[in-house]
């Protein structure tokens, strides 16, 4: 994430449930979406709230969409 942020590139970032990982590695780009999985054993990114993921993907897609070029 730090490389993408340094290049001013927004990111869609998925984390396992770890407040520390999220704090250390989240994207700070204003158009980025950072999502963390629900707690559980084992710690697994597949424990994401998939409804929130869909909403995040939609929000991210709208934020980074290129405007259509009318000819």
Could you write a compact summary of the structure shown?
By secondary structure, the protein is α+β, with helices and mostly antiparallel strands.
H-E order:
HEHEH
* Strand order of the biggest β-sheet: 1-2
Give the number of domains.
1
Radius of gyration: 14 Å
Description:
38% of the residues lie in helices and 11% in strands. The chain has 71 residues and is α+β, with helices and mostly antiparallel strands. It has one domain. A two-stranded parallel sheet has the order 1-2. Helix 2 links the parallel strand 1 and strand 2.
Key terms:
71 residues, alpha+beta, two-stranded parallel sheet, 2 strands, 38% helix, flat
Chart the SSEs and their pairings.
Layout: H1 2-6, E1 12-15, H2 19-25, E2 33-36, H3 50-64
Parallel strand pairs: 1-2
């Amino acid at each position: 994430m730090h490389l993408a942020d340094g290049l001013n590139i927004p990111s869609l970032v998925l984390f396992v449930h770890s407040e520390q990982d999220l704090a250390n590695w989240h994207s700070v780009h204003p158009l980025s979406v950072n999502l963390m999985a629900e707690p559980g054993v084992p710690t697994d990114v597949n424990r994401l709230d998939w409804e929130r993921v869909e909403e995040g993907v939609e929000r991210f897609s709208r934020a980074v969409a290129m405007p259509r070029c009318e000819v």
